[in-house]
User: Fold these one by one.
Assistant:
Number 1:
Amino acid sequence: MEQNTNKQQFMQGLRDGVPVSLGYFAVSFTFGMMAVAGGMSVWQATLLSLTNITSAGQFAGLEIIIACGSLWEMALTQLVINLRYSLMSFSVSQKLQKNIPSGHRFLVAFGMTDEIFGLSISRSGKLNPWYHYGAMCAAIPGWTLGTFVGAMAGNIMPGFLSSALSVAIYGMFLALIIPPAKKHRPVRAVVAGAMAISAVFAVVPVLNRISSGFVIIFTTLIVAGAAAYFCPIGDGEEETHES
Amino acid sequence: MNHSVYVYILVMAGVTYLIRMLPLVLFKKEITSPFVKSFLFYVPYACLAAMTFPAILTAPSSGMIAGAAGLGAALIAAYREKSLLTVALCACVAVFVAEQILGFLG
């Protein structure tokens, strides 16, 4: 009985994960291309995707690798960019079935991406970890294979195509931030403020020598900190973040 | 740089996994600080916005005009709440078209 329920949950997660997997493939294809263009091997790029499964963090990390940045810069950048996952893990920690062995928590954590989190947190009632695993089993191969195929194609990709695909990831980021920014004024201010500050770092003479990893950290801390101070969120608003 | 790429990957994967794992394993109680909750709520928006702009302008190899076309197309598609994939494709197509036009003019 229990086994059967777990299997059904897993299959449901697998089904729900398919569109996520397709979206991942396209984005991580771009990552694979950029990684190879930056000097990484196909296998390094694929390993990076398989072990990280995070778009923003990987793209920022890639820049640091290409620029031969320090490991501290890398660790700090990942910490700040991926800090959001800790909030997601906090939420899922509340939602997981109470009686499951704690070993599950280590495995659930590995698949805590924006999209899989969105699926899992939207389940009604308590979360069966097998649903989460099902979504992971659909999404993670999409992410990893996308990088592999992109890295293989990167060497033979015509210039006009790689130039066009270079904006795909930014398009995806905009698709994530613009709809909530439309609905919530503080989010709108955060988006505009962060863009303005990072633009300042890009054009002002001395500031534009600071590496992009630190610019992202600094901008995120300042803007998110100010927003949290001036516009603390109510309990209900978290829902918009989770989708 | 080849030999140290694996060290970078290890650091990235380690930090990212710890961020995901520690709250799940250590904290089973709810976060109560409104400031921390709010801060974590705003982080992805600030971070993604800072990464997108102005980087999107300089991403295409032909330069800022194609980048601006990609940005404009993505903003319109995202404002209409199209899917991630659609918005990403709109940006790519806009850059492609802009570069073809620029190439034709130049």
Number 2:
Amino acid sequence: MDWGTFLKISHLVGTVLGVGAVTFIDYFYIRAAKDGKIEPHEAEPIRLLTPILRLGLIILIISGFGYFLLYRLTGHEERLLNPRFLAKMSVVGIIALNGLLLELKKIPIAIGGPISSVSWWSAFVLGAWRGLNLSFWTIMGSYILVVLAAILVLKAIKKVLKIEI
Amino acid sequence: MSLVLKLALIGHVLSGLLALIFYYAMIPNLIGKNLQPNFLKRLSLAGLVTLLFSWILAGYYYTQYYGQSVKPIIKSGQLPWAHSILMETKEHIFLFLPFLGLVLAAACLSSKSDIDKDETLRKALAKLAFVVVALGTAVTIFGVVISGAAK
């Protein structure tokens, strides 16, 4: 197996763990919060999935920098300034910062949750969408719009289901 | 680029990343309710060792290769500011990061440290760890742009 294939598999594993964990955390959170309070047994799946999310993030970051080294050492440095690559790196940085703020309870879950979900899915889409040919600011602008939309959608879901937390 | 230089660059990037992960993990441990002094000691020591490793390898790569082979390409390329602004800034920030790491390790490892009792000390150390992570992230991004400009 060459380094490119190894990195691709590692990167996919990191993304799958992160996207999968964040999606199930959202699902368990909405399900648990339906009655307005989260019981300890309802929080258990979320607690169990959090280390998976962290592991996914670590694998994603390390394999991402593996790509950086591969490009640098094989004479494909121009790919490092590709807007899609830079946008993905920014989104992963936001995932890390948002995770820290959520852990420290410095950001409400109604905002941090959607940021986390949208960011993980955005990183996945940006990684998979090879032909995406937009500027860095267009990609980041679209990402911010989707984050705002997700915050509003979560608010609407809470209103419809009469969730008060 | 020789094999030794390639290994130096790989080691520099990966150990620097590991250092950032260790310091990132210190922050919630210092501020959160579940303080684990032994875990903090290990993290601060691992952070310092990996940061120093990254430091030495970067120094070797910079003095043996970057100046002669990469810098002229960047300066004559489309993004000369990648060297004149980003690399110059990166050098200076990078030089003092291990000293910040040393302060964190000394505070966590000292036998006289009251880290489990002194909340003010913990908050100050969390802020310092955040500064290391923020500066480390900035120089990492600079590194990516500098490498991208070396074409």
